[in-house]
Every structure is written in C-alpha cells, then in structure tokens.
Amino acid sequence: MSKQALVIMIFVLAAKFLPAQTCTATGQTPSSAVLICGSDVVVQDPVAFCGQTTIPTSCIDGASHQNLNPYWYKLACFSSGNLGFTITPKDLNENYDWQLFDGTARNPDDVFTVPSIFVACNWSIDPGVTGASVDGTSLTVCSSPGEPAFSMMPDLQTGHEYLLMVSHKTPTTNGFQLEFSGGSAGITDPFEPKMIAARISCDGSKVIVKLNRGMKCSSISADGTDFTVSSATITSAFSGGCGTSATTDSVILSLNTQLPLGTYTLTIQNGTDGNTLTDICGRDIPFGDQLSFLVAPLQPTPFDSVRTSGCGPSSVQLIFSRPIQCSSIAADASDFIISGPQPVTISNITSACNSGTNPPSTAAIINLQLASPIVIAGNYQISLINGSDGNTVIDECGRLTPAGNLFFTVKGAASASFTYSLKPSCKNDTLVFAHPGGNGINNWNWTFDNSVSSNLQNPVQVYPASGKHTARLIVTNGACSDTSLQTITLDNKIVAAFDMPTTICPGDTVSFINKSSGTVDGWQWDFGNGTGSNLKTPGPMLFYPVGRESFYSIKLIASSVGMNCSDIAVHAIRVLGSCLIAVPGAFTPNDDGLNDYLYPLNAFKADNL
Question: Tens of pLDDT along 98-148?
Fold first, then answer.
C-alpha cells in the first residue's frame, strides 16, 4: 500500500469514528444560513467536521440522513416557478447530498424536527455533480444504489422562504460550487434597495431612517455623508443594529440643530467611502433617492399594526411607528388580551429590549408569545388595555398609547392527511386517492413511488396487484402547508398454479397439488377427460387405459368472486399406452437407424433397470 493511500485510509477512518463536533460557524447552522442573491455562483470551501443530527425526509431506504459537515443557504421566492441548481464538487470523486426545506415564518431549527416542511432531496450515494434539473424524475431521491444524480426541480411559491442544506459524509479539503440556473422561479428581489421612511427623534435633533432591507454596516459612512437633510447638517451616522450583525435596516442621523416644525427632504448620496449604502447582494441604494418626512407636534404612538406568521401562529407581533419604553410594558402581559374562535393565552412577552439591537430601554416591536398555537381559522381581536402596571404602553417620547383594538385573520392549519380506495383486480389494482380539501387548501402536490407526480386533488394510480408503494402529498392554502406520507402494500394478485406428474402409466391415479396464491375463493378444474372438480385440492384422478399413448390437458382456473377476475394454469399429462416391460429377442446393429440397440421397452416403472 502506498503512503498516500495509507494516509487517506487513516483520514477516512478517523473521520468515521471521531465524535461529531457542534456546528457553530456562519453557514453551518440553519439560523446562520448564507443568503443567496439571485443567480450568483457560490464557491464554497469546506467547513469543519461537524453535525450528525438526523434530518426528517420522505425516503424509506433504511439509511441515516444527517446534517454531516453541512452548509446552509437561504433563498426567498419573489415569483412562483420551479428551482434549478447544480452542486459541482471540486473533486468529482466526492459525494454531496442535499435537502430543501420550506422555512417560511418558522424557527430555522424546525428542519430537524418537522417533517412537513420537506420540499425535495437527493441522497444518492454516487459521487459527482448533483442538484435539481429538467433531467430529474422525482423530488425524492434516496440512498439506494443506482439512484439518479439529479432530482426533479421543486416548485417554489411567491412569498415563501427556503433553506437548502448541502452536506458531505467525510471531511474534505476540496469544497464545491453552487449555481442556481435552469428554473423559472424568481429568487432575485425585483425591488432595488431604498429608504422607506424617516422620523424625527423626540428632541428633534436626530433623524431615524428606515430601509427596505438589511444593508451592510461597512457601507455606512460614520460621518453621515451618505445623506443630506434640507435645512440642516448631518454630523454623524450610527446604527445600533450593527453591534451584533453585519447588516442593519435602520440608521440614526445626528443633526447640528433641532429641526422646527415643517416638511423636510432626506436625500442619499455617495459618502466619503465612495458609495451610498450597499445590501448583502452588492446592490446600492440609487444615488439621489429621496423621501420626505414631517416634523409635527408630538402625538401619542398609535396602536395600529399587528402581524402573525405562518401556519398555526405561536406568537403575535405588534409593530409601533415609534419605539416603546420597555419599562412601560407589563411583564405579566396584562397590557394585551387576544380573543377569537379559539381561546388564546399570552404566556410571555419578548422584544428587542433584551437583545441589545436597540437602546435597551425601547423597542419598536413587541412579540406576544402564546401558550399554544392558534390552530382554529377565523378572525381574532387583540386589545390594548391598562395592564397590572396601571397603564397601556408609553413611547420613547413619554406619550401614552391610547387603548384600542386590532384585528387579524388566521387561516386554518393545512392537513395533508389523505385516504385511498382500492379497486382490486387479479393483475393490476386501481387506487383512487382522495384529499378532503378545506381550510382554504388550493394546491396539491402528489408524488407516487418517488417518480410519478400529480397536482390533482383526487388522482388515480394503477399498480401491479402485488408489491409495496409510497404516496406522498404536500398541500398548502397559501399560508400553511403540510406533508403526509403513506406506504401501501398490495397482495391480492391471483396466480393459478399446480404440480402434477407429466407422464403416467395407464390405470395409475394422479394427485394434483394446488399451489395457487392470492385472495382466491374459487377453483375450477378440468382434467381433459370430460371430468372436473371445484375443490381446492381434488382427489386422485384415474386415467383409464385406451390401448395407446394419450395426452390430456389439465386446466385450473383460480378466481376471486369479490374481484370478479381469475387466472388460468394449464399443464399437459402423457398417459403411456403400456407400461409392461417388453424384451426384444433380436436387434440389427447395422447403423440403419432401426433396432440398432438392444434394451427393454416400456420400462417406465422399472426401479433397477
């Protein structure tokens, strides 16, 4: 064995038996997934050996599917369509696996525990290029030998966010290239980055700018030269969000004076760093982008915006136009009451007060954590009242928000549970699958045996009457989705079969051994001599001598009354004319083909010839 081969073997064995490490680096966990910017090519160097958490999948192959040495990517769908991508190992002898999840409005770690967010996968054990393309025939490619390298391109839905895990089973120093192409789904944000709002601080000396997405903190000029404000000079720019993240969606501009009442224009320009502000995908806010804002007498911050997320929301998010003093929020959540078709209890309150992303005394977003998810569809009301602290909530400027009500709608949870009815036959079975719909479900995605797909609500499939099959259904109502998988075993194939001797002597009785299989409840024998039987195993049959060699066709029809079908088996039996041993008195061994050999005749039953 060469030194190189020995080193490789030791390395692989060490990787196999060393305990897996916890994934901690950026991109190694679902919560730190790398954002995909449109069709950009991602060149990924390998990451540290880590992982080994089981991943729920729709494969039924007995294999272990885990996040071994993973890298996670995050992408958003801006227009519905299918997703095509290619994973090319730098060393084509390496094998990379992948799985796609729908992470819309979910905790990223749900990928480890919630099977219903599965979208597609490819766990083929063969090395080389993999991905999703027009060459794929199934959304689910498992780890059985000979599985295809490419899966079918999955369908993405507008407004949904997805997580793609790429993993490899052994540590490597080579890495891979990831490219998104060939699909029709739009994963590039069609809207350019821009400013969307600005407001004045309580004392009129600062302008707080809100952006439509996270912008790189490194692209913000600290001297504030990325912005200009009419009738004032900007002296500095700051974002508290940059304390714990590389991006921020708000910037605080300090002014050289307090702005009097009136309307002002905020304009963005190239700062001393040579650019405006740049998003994570490298796109700048257009030079000269403007918006107007009003400096008016201070008014109470209204209770006017509520947002829920996903299917069966476990939290309700309140968004305020001006940050709220955290000390004014009752710790026991008594400032808020939620009512609706389902009783809802607020278990606790979380906000940016405790995250360090804002000044710790205020928060613009308050999350109401619920004791249990809202699963009953309908209209719900959230009321702001005086809590146990004697007040509603107070904004950063000391203004009390008046009590009030907001309304939100919850769509019912989408259930993918389905049934099927069987129309059996002796050779092929017809299965009619049925999903009841309801709760606004308007999309059905069926996959049968990891190959055939259908978008019908109640599709029909024809299978051989014996075998094991899988049926997977993904449903959605636009807000909620669910997945259901069933394994179906069919065993009603009827095969008629029997054993018997093929040659007998005249006067012998013949026994028939019925070896038919399946759900047989009827037998019809025809012995070819004018007699028959409807017994499963008929008694011995006597074929009478006729003085010459004869042949009879024995037929068995095995049938099912319930399925109204049958199968036929036919064998021929030879009845000799005589089994009396005749010994010739002479022979003519002259090679003329007649009587050239001397041997007994009709010695069919002789046991010591």
Answer: 999 998 877 888 899 888 788 999 999 999 999 999 988 888 899 888 899
pLDDT in tens, 328-343: 999 899 999 999 999 9
Q: Which two tokens stand for residue 297?
A: 């007498």
**What pLDDT does residue 297 have?**
92
CB atoms within 10 A of CB 285: 22
DSSP state of 387: -
Task: Find, among 154, 140, 74, the residue nearest to 111 by Cα.
Answer: 74
Could you give the 3-state DSSP secondary structure of residue 287?
coil
580: left (phi over 0), alpha (psi -120 to 50) or beta: beta
Instruction: Give yes or no for a contact between 447 and 139, defined as CB atoms under 8 angstroms apart.
Output: yes
The mean pLDDT of 504-512, rounded to a whole number, is: 89
Helix, strand, or coil here: 3?
A: helix
Tell me the CA distances in angstroms from 108 to 211, 483, 561, one per residue in order.
Answer: 24, 18, 55
Buried-exposed string 290-307: b where 16+ CB fall within 10 A, e elsewhere? ebebebeeeeebebeebe
In whole angstroms, what is the distance from residue 141 CA to residue 520 CA?
37
On whether the CB atoms of residues 504 and 510 are closer than 8 A, the answer is yes
Q: Which residue has the tokens 């700062």?
A: 271
Instruction: Please give the angle made by the CA atoms of 91, 94 and 97, to the nearest 5 degrees.
Output: 125
Q: Which helix (H) or strand (E) holds 13?
A: helix 3-17
Residue 605 CB neighbours (<10 A): 13
pLDDT tier at 467 (50, 70, 90 boundaries)? confident
Compute the distance between CA of residue 336 and CA of residue 340 in angstroms, rounded to an integer: 14
Return d(Cα 512, Cα 499) in angstroms, integer. Answer: 6
- Rounded to the nearest angstrom, the gap between the alpha carbon of residue 402 and the centroid of all alpha carbons in its chain is 45
Burial class (CB in 10 A: 0-12, 13-18, 19+), 22: exposed
Which one-letter DSSP state was computed for residue 27? Answer: T
Give how far the C-alpha of residue 470 lies from the chain's centroid of Cα atoms, to the nearest Å: 15
**Is residue 435 a contact partner of residue 473, using CB atoms and an 8 Å limit?**
yes
Starting at the edge strand that comes first in sequence, how are the strands of the sheet with 362-370 ordered? 306-308, 315-325, 362-370, 346-351
- Tokens for 260, please give them: 């009097």
User: At a CB cut-off of 8 Å and minimum separation 6, what does 583 contact?
Assistant: 600, 601
